[in-house]
Every structure is written in structure tokens, then in C-alpha cells.
Amino acid sequence: MRAIVTAVVAAIEAAAVAFAGLAVVAVPALLLWTVVFGLAAEPGTVAAGIASVWLLAHWVPMRLEIDAQAALGLGLAPEPLAFVISLAPLGITLVTVLLAARAGWRFGARGGTGAAGSLGGVFGFGLVAFAAATVAAPFGVWPLWLEVLVPALSYGAVSAAAFVVRAARDEHGWWQACTRAAQRALERLGASYAAAAMPVRVAEVVRLATAAIVAVLGLAAFAFTVAVVVGYPHVIALTQGLHLDPLGSVLVFLVQLALLPVAVVWGVAWLTGAGFAVGAGSSATPFEALLGPLPALPLFGAIPQGWGAFGALAPAAVVLMGVLLGVWFARGPLQRRSSWAVVLTTAVAAAALAGLAVAALCALAAGSVGPGRLDTVGAEPWLTGGLAAGELGAGLLLGVAASRVDLQRVRIALPDAVRAAQGRVRGEQPNSGALPFLSESDDEVLRAAAQGDDAADPLVHTRANAAHDAGNDAADVQDTASFDTAALDTAAFDITASDSAIAAHDGAASASAARDARQPEDTAVDDDTAHDTEALLRAYSWDEGAPLGDEPDPPHRPRPWLRRKR
After folding, report:
1. Whole-angstrom Cα distance, residue 328 to residue 208?
2. Where do the H-state alpha helices sit in 331-439?
3. Which of 476, 498, 269 is nearest to 391 (CA)?
4. Which residues, 6+ apart, have CB-to-CB distance to 168 below 8 Å?
5. How far apart, in whole angstroms, are the C-alpha atoms of residue 167 and residue 173?
6. CB 3.0-4.6 Å disulfide test: which of 76, 220, 415, 535 passes with 267?
7. Distance CA 235, CA 296 (A)
8. pLDDT by residue (tens digit) across 105-119?
9. pLDDT tens for each residue of 143-190
10. For the residues 231-246, what does the mean pLDDT come to?
């Protein structure tokens, strides 16, 4: 019962969405009929025109017929013409898409019964489409059932997509069941690891592909704005050539506003380098612009001329956008824990999905706008989608690679690698006392200890000192004999000096000096002796990689030959 109620509510809402789109078309049409034509045209013809434009916004073509006089006024041969217009005004389509997505998202909050809302929406939108197709029969091209089915499925597809996204986010029961079924299928194929990581990885691919599509569309919108500003003199010249009154200027503005999303999609094709056509045999790309006679629409005055060799800057901008997205994507916590192969595969899959979306948008923004050579306008879908996928994929891979490379590790390891390479060229043995390759955590510990953070955990300072001593201990091994001999000589010198001092002083001073000299074996040397020993160690250090003063001093370890036995 609840599912039936949901379907009825969805059907009513879908019908309201359809009437909202019809109102967007009807208001300027009725204004034109009343003010310009003075209600001279037949009401049936006006209603048929309104319904045809609304159906055109949902990818149902319309057929127009003009007499010889009207053809002559358009600059064509003075003979009757009949042609098909199939380029959808995506500005009107966008109204339906946004409202359908809102409805599907809201019905997704009801769980599994929300699926009935998508079916009910198809039914309600189809009823309005049936009425519109019946009224627009004089301009119809397709059979009636097809003119009803295409708009209904368009609404239903958008609503169902929003419902599925909401179900995936809220983890509905039916969605989890489908996910487990897909995982079991992968396990039967022997891909157990892929099956376990599939939900998370698919979500990452979809998220990155969505970000790439939005970024490319935003870049195309910015490029179109710049083109309008640069080509504003041409736009004004085309507008003045139409000799429009104020009402006509408003209507032309509304027509161009309905075609604005089409211009943005064509901008995507232009940026990728594929370009678009405004009539058969024409092309507009960043490298060159071969345009013939254009429709008298001011919007076409913004088409830029070719840049020649500098046209490569347009695809480079798409690649740069991919690099920025790749850096943003690779800095996520999940990508930091993933391997190189997984992250790169995710980037490639997202680029391929974004390319398919761009190809679909180009297919929806193509069609015909007039007779003759104007029956082909728009971009080539597969060429544009392929170039977009390749450019975004290259940028994403570069961004991911640049973000995952640890420059600090490279900076530490590069001098040792250069010395090792020089040694191999000279035939020398590799230096066994080279600075060990530090991990990222050890590098952070060293950096924290070098800053002198006294509030830090003592274990942190212990790890920092141990990591610092690793290089010094390795270098000390190479010259142990000479170093120990010098240390023993120094110790003997200190003992002799101490005995001379004891003999020269009085008895009380000798007793005090003797007590100080005879320390227990398990006690450390005094501060002065520790300072001298540390200075001696730093003087005989062979570690050139650790700069003095930047790293914490190593902890003093008393040498057995510096202690006196009782």
C-alpha cells in the first residue's frame, strides 16, 4: 500500500514538473503572440508550437515548413522549404533534470519503496508528454508512441539515478544485497581482494570522475565567458543586423539563454582540441576556425578564431586541471594507505568514466538547426570523449605521481646515491657507512627532535637519537682501531695529569681528588668529562650527512677505558 501511495505522489509531482517546463516555453510565446502578432495567429498553431518546443527540449525533433517569401527573408532561395530541427535547447531541459533529480533524491530517503516513485514519475511525465505530442502533431516527425516514450524515459532516468545515489549513500538493504552479489561473483572468478575492496574503490572512481566532469564544465564556462567578452564587437554587430525592437531583443535573449548549456558543451569540445561544427564542412578548433554562413544569432559571434600553434594551450589547460585534481585526490587518507597500482588504476578508471560522460553530453548537444548544411551542428561525441579521457587521464596520473613522491626522502637519499654511482664508475667498493635510508616516520621524529620540543614524549627523543646515531655508528666502524688508540692515549694523559696534581697538593686536596677519581663503575663521568668526550667524538666523526647544530647531540655513553677501577 505504501508503494502505491509513493507512486501516485511521484506521478503527480512529475506532472507538475512537466507543466513547469511548459510554462517556461509558453510565457514568452504567448507574449510574442499577443504583442507582435496581435492575436492574429491561430490559437491551435500557437499551442502546437509551444508543445513542439517543449518536446524538442526533451530530444523529440520538430518539423518546420516555410513558404517562399519567408525563405527569401531568411536569405535562402525563394521556394518553400521543409526541414527538421533537432538541437535541444538544454536550458529548458535543465529545468526538468534538476526537478527530477530532486524528486528522486527525496524518494530515496524512503528506502526500497522509493523505487515505486521512479516508476510513478515515468507514468505522470508520460501523460503530460502524450498530451503535448497530440497537440504538436502538425510539427511531429516521430510516431506518437516514440514522442511520448523519450520524454518519459528522460525524466525517469534522471530520477532513478538520483534515487540510486541516495540508496548507495544511505546503504539501503537492497543496495547492500546487490553489492554482496557482485562481490561473490568476483570471488568465484578468483579476485578475492578486488571483491573486498570493490565498494570503496568504485565510490572513489565515481567521486573523482564527477569532480573531473564538474571541473571541465567550469573551465568551459569560463572559456565561453572570455570568448563573449573578446568577441563582443561581433556579437553587437550581429544583434544590430537583426533590427530588433525591445520585445524582439528580449525574445532573442531568452532563446540564447536556452542555448547557453549547449554553448558550454561546445566549449568543452573546443578545449579538448576536437572542436565543433556549425554546418556541414565547418569546424571551430583552437588551432583554426573554418566557418561558412552562420545563422543570424548573436551567440555565434563569440566563436573565436584559430590560434595556430598556440592552440595547444587549450588542451594543456585540461591537462593542468587534471593535475590539480590528481594532487587533491592523492592527498586523501585512503589513497595514502593504498599502493601505487591501486591509486593509478583508480585515476585511469575515473578518466575513462569522465570521457564517457563528456561523449554523452556532446551527443545530447548536437543536432540540426536548419535546412541544407545546417543539418549538422555540434561536436563529434566519440572524438571529444576520447580526447577528454586522454587529457584528464594524463593530468590525473601526473598529479597523483607528484603528490605521492616524498621529496624529503629523495633529498636525503640523493647524495648517497650519487656517491655510490661515482664509486661504481671508479671501480670502488660501495660505502658501507652510508647514511641509512630513513622512513617517513623516522624523518618526522628527527625533525621534531631537532626543534627541541621538550614537551614531547621521551620515547620520541630516544627514537630521534637512535636514528641520528645510526649514521655515526656506521662510520665509526670503518676506523675503530685508530679511534680507540687515540681515545686510550687521551685517557692515559688524563690519568697522568691527575696523578701529578695529587702529588703536588696537600693531603686534604689529595684525598678529595682521589675520592673524585675513584668513581664506581656503574656511575657516569662528570659533566666536564662528558663535554670533552662529546667534542672528541664530533671531531673524529666521519658522517658528513648530518649537519652540526641542526640535529640533536647523541646521548653520551661512558667508555670503559675512561673509568678508573678501585
Report:
1. 10
2. 333-337, 340-364, 381-404, 407-426
3. 269
4. 175, 203
5. 9
6. 220
7. 10
8. 999 888 777 788 889
9. 999 999 999 999 999 999 999 999 999 888 888 999 999 989 888 888
10. 86
Q: Please tell me whether residue 284 adopts helix, strand or coil conformation.
A: strand
Calculate mean pLDDT across residues 77-97: 90
- The residue with cell 578548433 is 285
> Each residue of 505-528: pLDDT tens digit?
444 444 444 444 444 444 444 445
Grid coordinates standing for 123? Answer: 507514468
Do residues 539 and 483 make contact, with C-beta atoms less than 8 angstroms apart? no
Query: Which DSSP helix (H) or strand (E) runs through 539?
Result: helix 527-539
**DSSP reduced 3-state for 542:** coil
Half-sphere exposure of residue 221, counting CA atoms within 13 Å on the CB side?
A: 9
Cell 503530460 belongs to: 128
C-alpha cell at 189: 572468478
Rounded CA gap, 441 and 249, in Å? 66
- The model's pTM: 0.73
HSE at residue 109, side-chain half, CA atoms within 13 A, is: 5
φ/ψ of 289, rounded to 5, equals: -130, 110
Q: What is the 3-state secondary structure (H, E, C) of 436-480?
A: CCCCHHHHHHHHHHHCCCCCCCHHHHHHHHHHHHHHHHHHHHHCH
Query: Which of 495, 500, 501 lies closest to 565 in space, CA to CA?
Result: 495
Helices (H), 85-191: 90-108, 115-135, 144-170, 173-188
Rg of the chain, C-alpha, whole Å: 39
**66 phi, psi to nearest 5 deg:** -125, 150
Q: What is the DSSP letter of 140?
A: B
**Taking phi first (over 0 means left), then psi (-120 to 50 degrees means alpha), and beta for anything else, what does residue 29 get?**
alpha
b/e map 116-153, b = 16+ CB within 10 Å: bbbbbbbbbbbbbbbebbebbeebbebeeeebbbbbbb
Alpha-carbon distance of 114 to 117, in angstroms, equals 5
Residue keyed to cell 593535475:
323
C-alpha cell of residue 503: 702529588
Residues 373-403: pLDDT tens digits?
Answer: 888 999 999 999 999 999 999 999 999 998 8
